[in-house]
Amino acid sequence: MTFDQFMQHYKQEIENCMKQAIIATESDQKLEQSMMYSLEAGGKRIRPLLVLATLIAFDCEPKLGYRTAAAMEMIHTYSLIHDDLPAMDNDDFRRGKLTNHKVYGEATAILAGDALLTKAFELIVSDTKLSTPVRVNLIQLFAKSAGASGMVGGQQADILGENQTLSLADLESIHRRKTGALLSASVLSGAIIAEASDADRLALEKFAHHIGIAFQICDDILDVIGDAEKMGKKTGADADLQKSTYPALLSLEGAKQALAEHTNSAKKALHTMNIDASLLLGLTDLIAVRDF
Amino acid sequence: MTFDQFMQHYKQEIENCMKQAIIATESDQKLEQSMMYSLEAGGKRIRPLLVLATLIAFDCEPKLGYRTAAAMEMIHTYSLIHDDLPAMDNDDFRRGKLTNHKVYGEATAILAGDALLTKAFELIVSDTKLSTPVRVNLIQLFAKSAGASGMVGGQQADILGENQTLSLADLESIHRRKTGALLSASVLSGAIIAEASDADRLALEKFAHHIGIAFQICDDILDVIGDAEKMGKKTGADADLQKSTYPALLSLEGAKQALAEHTNSAKKALHTMNIDASLLLGLTDLIAVRDF
After folding, report:
1. Cα gap B160→A273, rounded to integer Å
2. Is A164 an interface residue toward B (CB < 8 Å)?
3. Mean pLDDT calculated for residue range B171-199
């Protein structure tokens, strides 16, 4: 299977799995529409594809990871819905489409986010293809990565960091939680399902750490040089909010160099394991080499 | 142990458990303060006490339920924080204290709610006093009760029902989800930990169904006749929002009668089981006979 075939096929499987999960929910129609709207708003599905690519690297049946992958994308999606709210980033557009609250109103957007987060846990816990200890380990990982010590804590620190000049260490601490935690959890949840060895998990953590930072550097660079139309949202937002970014701290060239270094370190970590890392290498390039 | 001793002792234990859980979280300080603020804002702790009273009714060690009880109160608390937001009920006061967003700002309040919901799942999944199948069953119950087909769906239906005259059936459908789902889950999670028989679980479901409705009827009555100072929040809010309520649909006397009927049905359900139901009976009275 080529990388492109992997991307195309499994993106579809993940999207089907998410859709099925929402259809199977007996709920209020407007709430379901609002949840589906953001789940269907596209994106590269990097997190769920990391789950499946990790499973395949360990020669494990990808189907075992569908629900976990879908759950991961739901958590990511909920975080975007809440981040876009007027009280947070106040974004009207995301991936070229109106943000959830612009279509369904703020109250429903808040509830749709809450419901997606909750649904993610439901999807994993009721996944009878996985043993109960595996489900428990996955939920532990998800809760830790998505919660106050992970993504939500990073988001809070990010808000508090606006209008302040942060050190590189502070900036990395924010992004390790805000973006890195879920990317890490995606890779590690694949490792949990594949029952990877402790040594391999450590190597995967290292890999995930570097792609997490690479991802954020990329995002910051795109915010400076990107084309609003291509990004599907307004660019230059970081500068408007006077946010500390990698290009602001390291210069644009320095940021590009740091990006290359983290990408290399990520790839090196993969090469220490006896796995078929081709898809994970492909995803690393996708994360790190976007349109610039 | 008298009912008052039960209330006093276990309220304290639940509050300690919640506090420990927040202290143990490595997170952003403001986020933690915001989470603690609402957890410490008081309330009767009916849901977590229902968990523990059910355990005691089955002669099961209450300690086994502390984390589950704390998790339940966290989910309840997150729902209050989000419900109070300007985009939702726009309440400035709750239990006589400023609401979370009035103190910490909207962004942090949204994130504190998200973090409490996530923390609830973390608390249960990492509770090593419980077997992995029990933890899986609890999380399944929590996710279903709190999510789109439960509490969040009920909240959405409640918003859509404003300015509309609902039938009694519609009103019960909303409250069965908005308030009833968590009250039910509190009782049923006690049953899961105590490994109650299927017959007893059915009886407990019946019990929980009736106290859920009783709880809501009471709330509606208090909103009409309650004293704002005693309630710690503004009353008459339902009428302002032109919400359908039990007193509006049944008259005040009719609502009081329905309340008595549901309370009796709840108690009857308890009497079909061979358990020591005294604490559950006490909680039923607490729920159904508030200050009027």
Report:
1. 54
2. no
3. 96
The residues near A148 (Cβ < 8 Å, ≥ 6 apart) are: B25, B27, B28, B31, B32, B35, B115, B118, B119
How far, in Å, CA of B19 to CA of B119, rounded?
Answer: 12
Cβ of B135 within 8 Å of Cβ of A136? The answer is: yes
Segment holding B93, helix H or strand E: strand B93-94
pTM: 0.95
Question: Which of A31, A113, A122 faces B153 most closely, judged by CB atoms?
Answer: A31
Q: What is the ipTM of this complex?
A: 0.94
When CB atoms are compared, the residue of A25, A28, A125 closest to B157 is A28
Taking only the tens place, the pLDDT of each residue in A179-223 is 999 999 999 999 999 999 999 999 999 999 999 999 999 989 988
Cβ neighbours of B142 in A, within 8 Å: 121
48-107 in chain B: CB under 8 A from chain A: 78, 82, 85, 87-88, 105-107
Q: Kindly list the residues from chain A whose CB atom is less than 8 angstroms away from the CB atom of residue B27.
A: 148-149, 152-153, 156
- Environment class of residue B37 by beta-carbon count within 10 Å: exposed (0-12), middle (13-18) or buried (19+)? buried
Domains plus CATH for chain A?
Answer: 3-289 (1.10.600.10)
Two structure tokens written together for B253: 């006397």
Interface test with A, best of B22, B28, B101 (most A CBs within 10 A): B28
| Tally of CA atoms within 13 A in the half-sphere of A269 that contains its CB | 22
B215-245: pLDDT as tens digits: 999 989 988 887 555 555 566 666 666 678 8
CA dist., res. B28 & res. B23, Å (int): 11
Question: By three-state DSSP, how is residue B86 classified?
Answer: coil
